[in-house]
Specification:
mainly alpha; 1 helix; globular
Amino acid sequence: MGVAGMKYYESFRELNRKIIKPAVQEINEHSDIHLDFELERM
């Protein structure tokens, strides 16, 4: 994906806060699709 070395991907907390949540919010605001996600630990 070309993300190697980006500091946002070093911890899931940052990935979730900076990438995932804003993307989900933007999709929900600007489309007729409603996304909701649930985290599962493995």
